[in-house]
Batch of 2 targets.
Target 1
Amino acid sequence: MYWEPEKETMEREELEQLQLERLEATLNRVHMNVPFYRRKFDALGIDTDDIRSIGDIRKLPFTTKDDLRENYPYGLFAVPLREVVRIHASSGTTGMSTVVGYTKNDIKTWSNLVARVLTAGGITKDDVIQIAFGYGLFTGGFGIHYGAERIGASVIPISSGNTARQIKIMQDFKTTALICTPSYALLIADTIMEMGINVNSLSLKYGLFGAEPWSEAMRKEIQDKLKIVATDNYGLSEVMGPGVAGECLERNGLHINEDNFLVEIINPETLEPVPPGETGELVITTLTKEAFPVIRFRTRDLTRLIPSPCPCGRKFMRMHRVMGRTDDMLIIKGVNVFPSQIEHVLFDIEGTEPHYQIIVDRKGAMDDVTVKVEVSEPIFFDEMKKQNELMDLIKRRLASELGIGVNVRLVEKKSIERSEGKAKRVIDLRKI
Ligand code: DLL
């Protein structure tokens, strides 16, 4: 089922024509209204009229998170503040937060795109949706909320936190779809089990999870524990929030809302496009945003495009689940490692709990990595021999997946902090 079939099944040629028209309009708007872009284009001698095909986008300069920070708070807005009806900001865990704005029209577009993602994930107006993303400056809560209302579903704006209450509401209000981060979904699932509630007595059918990286193994874990169909959806505040891309029920890559976002995959070192289908950094240009358009925004997210047609019939290109961020990448003994690779290994090992943390420290000139993993109770309290066997097994599997050895520490169940929002998987002691 589609939310906007005429758009979602548009032929490529027609789509590219639409993208080009919208790109030209966006470029004219930013050139006219945002001094930052005007200066950059003028310095490079770029006339917006020179952009005559989608491929010409490569002539334009990139925009980075630093550019956004330097223009804090409103410097990159393309409309006067009186036309802005909503302001969000990214959490700013890695520095000053970035501020984004939306016009009335932007909110309409955003709701519509989220409605597409929700519909692709199985949601209809008959669903009762529990939104357990934080409501506030974070785009997750409000972004999903407006899209869900747009569909006509019954929305429970519970926000994140208070897990016992989440579960009570889920039981009493007969929630059919849960929307939050995958790590919070797992915490909810584990709490349901601990409370001795039979998951089959709940009405849950679908889960739409996003806002942080997760693995296929984690999807399986959540689906099994909550007895739902779980899809992945992606977005980022700088570009819009949720609604940029989402999986359909095939669960094999996220359809990008290409009529609103022009995407490129570049090599983050050379900044050149990667060959089709190869992994690199996702770069996004917004095509319809009024208040806060971005041109060639470097997301730092690593993914690849999946050009083959999807059996669901949507024509929008899919992207592979985000494998990690360029700034999350660990270089251990010269080898590039992403937390998601470690997760993939751990989730497949019997006797471990799906909770882990990666601690990076420096010993002399070398990075030293310890993977802390929770083990299930019987093993933790069992004899040393069993613990050692399990530790060896984890070390061996990690070594074969990563190509390097890391330290492993088994810890008691529940000793790693649980997350109600985005999980913090990597503790980097090197920066302290
Ligand atoms: O996380 C927007 C969002 C809200 C998306 C709700 C989906 C659902 P930010 O807080 O600005 O915005 O964080 C954006 O989170 O650049 C990715 O690194 C990461 N991220 C978001 N979705 C996914 C996903 C929201 N499905 C940053 N898989 C992005 C992996 C994701 N990483």
Target 2
Amino acid sequence: MDAFEIHGGSPLCGETQVYGAKNAALPILAATVMVEEPCVIDNVPDLEDVRVMMKILQTLGASVRRDGTSVVVDAGNLRSTNVPADLMRRMRSSIFLMGPLLARFGDVRVSKPGGCVIGQRPVDFHLRGMRALGASIEEKHGFIRCSSNRLFGTEIVLDFPSVGATENLIMAAALADGQTVIQNAAREPEIVDLANFLNACGANIEGVGEDTVRVQGVHHLHGTRHRIIPDRIVAGTMLLTVAATRGKVTLTKAEPAHLGALLAKLKQAGVRVHTDRDIITIECLKPLRAVDMRTAPYPGFPTDLQAPFMAAFTTAEGTSVIRESVFEARFKHVNELTRMGADITVDLQTAVVRGVSQLSGATVEATDLRGGAALVIAGLMADGVTRVEGLQHIDRGYQQLDVYLRDLGAVITRTGAMS
Ligand code: UD1
């Protein structure tokens, strides 16, 4: 029950490195169960979600060990295809094990993920795709069992470019007989990273990063060493924090090409941004100018940065209209921002943010990962002291966020629960 105590008002200044992407590390770790030889994955962030995925792999019988920022997985002697329900409940992304376990063993049992605070998040696209590949699916007592003697390549058209469904189907198709074509595929950089990993293991996947992906099934995958891409959502959160606190920071080991939509909005808002290979320098001397924003699948504006963006624009000059088009209920942070003095009204999936001159510190509670990051940004902008509770959500996706921010001059400490 830890909380962050934040004394707002210090601009972030200095230089910091971006670590590896959680949303690439999770599917890639899941994909290692398809490989019968050891794999070394470098630049793996040390986050709660990653620890849960490593624990699941161990429970299935893989040998998994962390060595600094690398994780070594040997799934040669995997025993079980039954993903433990208690671990699965701790992380939705364990659904990524469905495709790989089905592909290698022809059988998998996972607990059905429920809705979550940002929306219903069904897995119907995943299941429809697995069925199209030839799996039979049984849904009973909160579990999903997928089985098949063989998977056969086929054509799949997704109703929406779902990141998770695209990844799960690519993994299942990688060991299927023949060619699978996935249309209306998601194009996120993390999917490209997953395909690069699988191709390095001997898979034959083309077109990733475009909306039609072709997977020619192979019989066997061999071990490899792979480096995870930088976390564009962590980088984006830092850029928005710097803009919000009117500071100047250089991010190294970043990938500016993955942040096009955010960088364009920051420039529109009057922020100075300079990129050079894997370096992004951002400087914000004046209040932000309000800008409108609509989330969309990549290369559109990432839904994962919607809440941090909203927090940063609560004190912009003018009114910003923010539309959330990916998830149906991703405005849980609005109530907490309003308690800190923000002027925001929500109508269905649109939030109207009227810039105020100053936020004021308050006790607020994070109820989801990115919404939690938004509250931290608000705390750093606010007058007085802000206490952000619900750190278990923030720790799922940000590595020691307080330490990271303190190094850049923020006044933030992790404290125990109030009695
Ligand atoms: C991934 C990311 C998450 C990000 C999201 C959208 C990981 C681990 N998580 O989540 O951080 O916010 O992409 O960029 O990579 N949908 C269905 N049926 C399905 C699957 C999805 O209706 O079977 C809907 C969802 O409810 C949502 C939309 O499609 O409204 C997009 O979801 P999806 O892209 O699948 O998100 P995730 O893969 O869960």
